[in-house]
Amino acid sequence: MLSPAAYHDDQDYISPFTIYNPNVIPDDPSFSDLVRQTEIAIDCGILPERIYQGSSGSYFVKSSVNKTIAVFKPKDEEPYGRLNPKWTKWLHKLCCPCCFGRSCLVPNQGYLSEAGASLVDTKLELNIVPKTKVVRLVSETFNYVRLDREKARAKRAVIERFPSLGRRFNRIGLPPKTGSFQLFVEGYKDADYWIRRFESEPLADSIQKQFQFEFERLVVLDYIIRNTDRGNDNWLIRYDKPEVSKDTPEEEWAFVKPPAIRVAAIDNGLAFPFKHPDSWRAYPYHWAWLSFAKVPFSEDIKNLVLPKTSDMNFVQDLCDDMYLLFKQDKGFDKNVFEKQMGVLRGQILNLNQALKDGRSPVQLVQMPSVIIERSTDQSNGSLRSVIKQRFQQESPIFSWC
After folding, report:
1. Measured on CA atoms in the order 192, 99, 101, 284, is the torsion positive or negative?
2. What does pTM read for this prediction?
3. 46, 130, 227, 348: which could join 41 in a potential S-S bond, CB 3.0 to 4.6 Å?
4. pLDDT digits (tens, 9 = 90+) for 49-92
């Protein structure tokens, strides 16, 4: 299969990495290398495999040794994207638009939301979102319209018969797709699985404290990005519990690893709304109904988060980084983006207050919805930034879904 590439005058194939490559990320060479491994694997015939769960077109991508290394979600195959291979979402939108879709979100920006969640995670040092960035990939297994496939087939036929014409084509093969590329995590299971286990097999106090801290990281992330799609099936838990038999010699106990527990926040594509939900559904955080959410925030999470989120320069830097990420979308609207950041700033304000007051996650989500708007005002011949705080009064009809 031919991937996007160029040809010399002698028609020899040139790797995309010898010319400009949008997948090369200068400040993260290890991530760039993983993307390159994926492209090499695709060129060798190890193609991405569609994930049949979920409501969008998403794919496991692999390395040249056939190992899954990431999940790729193309922009045009999102739930309401024009090439979503799962027709049920199209039917939902066509037949009952008021009950499906999220009116508080910018349509078809899920790939940016995935990368944005990773950015927030990195800035706050939460370390629960698998690293995610925006890349461009092409594969026969992606969903393309018939015309694109016919064009690619025709170009290949022309080049095979008349090699000298190859340089006349701007692109050989199928068009690349822009989407989110999230590193694959191993050894994790759905949170729902472990939560049920913990009910019958309670954790030891030391592990419970460790898990509570991990859970609080998830709460902080979801609240700041105002995740509208967090159920117990789209965050993961890895619990490494050493298997020790009664016959284990005493001298071997020193080599037994202590139990460890980690949380991974995946499926972050339905976040960063430009307003709080105020129509049909509330899109609650389902973790708020867990017993862990009734425990007041720990000193550990306060020490990790408060020094950063209480610093207005840090918050502005975060918004600036989000701007650089979001503006690469062709449908970017600066006014809408400012509204998204208004929600984000309001969430940070509430979070800071909850942490300082010693509240719990469930008390945090019960706080009034705040929006912090930033605008410019010209007075006395000079421009100055104006910050305004307001509460969103409108509430959705159904608060439990």
Report:
1. negative
2. 0.86
3. 46
4. 999 887 788 999 999 999 999 999 999 999 878 888 876 665 66
Q: What is the per-residue DSSP string for 369-399? A: PEEEEEEEEEETTEEEEEEEEEE-----SBS
Q: How confident is the model at residue 383 (pLDDT cuts 50, 70, 90)?
A: low
Contact, 110 vs 104, CB < 8 A?
no
Q: d(Cα 145, Cα 331) in Å, to the nearest integer? A: 21
- Residues 6 or more apart whose CB falls under 8 angstroms from that of 28 comprise 133
Written as one letter, the residue type at 132 is T
Which residue ranges make up each domain of the chain?
6-183
Percentages of the chain per state (helix, strand, coil), in multiples of 5: 40, 15, 40
Distance CA 336, CA 185 (A): 33
Query: Which residue has 């692999």 as its token pair?
Result: 62
Tokens 């045009």 correspond to what residue? 76
